Amino acid sequence: MQKPDWLLPRPPFELTPEKLDAFEGLWQSTNCGESIDYHLPYPKWQFLTYLCETKEFVLHGSQHSHIDIVEPRQAHDTRSYSNQHAIYATTDGIWVIFFAIIDRKRHPGMSLFNSCLQIRISADQLSDPLYFFSISQPAKLQKAWREGLVYILPRQRFERENAQVIQGAEVIFPHWISKETATPVAKLVVGPQDFPFLEQIHGHDDEKLNRLEAADPNGFPWQEALES
């Protein structure tokens, strides 16, 4: 499977010994359940990715700043996996920031569609993460993003979405759900400046997108609906 042009590759990320020590020191200094006092010179998405790669955590993005217990809620999506009554989380430090900063409170009619995936290259090798992001064009023109929170949750009660075969290649999604409540281990404040693809968020025509998706459910990302 050749990478489509519309997929964005993750920025370079190397977990150097110095970065590893800094991330581990910050994590060890964080009290359970509290907000992380982030003062490191590294992007926050790298710290979040480190937590998921080295510890048994998943990440949940939210606009709510005081969540003591994350509860399952009914999602609304055309895909059955993404349309369950569940907590949705990810193990990708960039994808979660997108959900944390998109201001759906101020833009309740906004729709968004997006993806984060890896392609299996060989039996023991995956591609780096690849991304796509889009929101309703009117909301994009109004810069519908704001500060949000990433909640760090124990992974034990979460299950990962099954891999899929697309165009003959195995595709893996860092997409996790739980039907049970979860208590955050910690939380991290993030803002638009922490999202590395802010300028690459597409805008789409909702009516056209709905029509194209109904006609071709497998046509993601329905590029004719994109306006920018």
Strand content of the residues, in percent? 25-35%
Helicity range: 10-25%
Give the structural class: alpha+beta
The total of helices stands at: 5
Order of helices and strands: EHHEEEHEEEHEEEEEEEH
Shape descriptor? globular
Task: List the uncertain runs.
Answer: none
Cα radius of gyration in angstroms: 17 Å
Number of strands: 14
Distance between the termini: 26 Å
The average pLDDT is 92
Sheet having the most strands:
7 strands, mixed
How do the strands and helices of this protein lay out in sequence?
Layout: E1 8-9, H1 17-28, H2 44-54, E2 57-62, E3 73-74, E4 85-90, H3 95-101, E5 112-122, E6 125-126, E7 130-136, H4 137-141, E8 148-154, E9 159-160, E10 164-166, E11 169-172, E12 175-178, E13 186-190, E14 202-204, H5 206-215
Parallel strand pairs: 7-14
Antiparallel strand pairs: 1-7, 2-8, 3-4, 4-12, 5-6, 5-7, 5-11, 8-13, 9-12, 10-11
Question: If you had to describe this structure to a student in words, what would you say it looks like?
Answer:
- It is a single chain.
- With 228 residues, this protein is of the alpha+beta class.
- It has helices at residues 17-28, 44-54, 95-101, 137-141, 206-215, and strands at 8-9, 57-62, 73-74, 85-90, 112-122, 125-126, 130-136, 148-154, 159-160, 164-166, 169-172, 175-178, 186-190, 202-204.
- The strands form three sheets. Strands 1, 5, 6, 7, 10, 11 and 14 form a seven-stranded mixed beta sheet that branches. A four-stranded antiparallel beta sheet has the order 3-4-12-9, with no helix packed on it.
- The chain is globular and about 50 Å long.
- The protein starts with 7 loop residues before the first strand and ends in a 13-residue tail after the last helix.
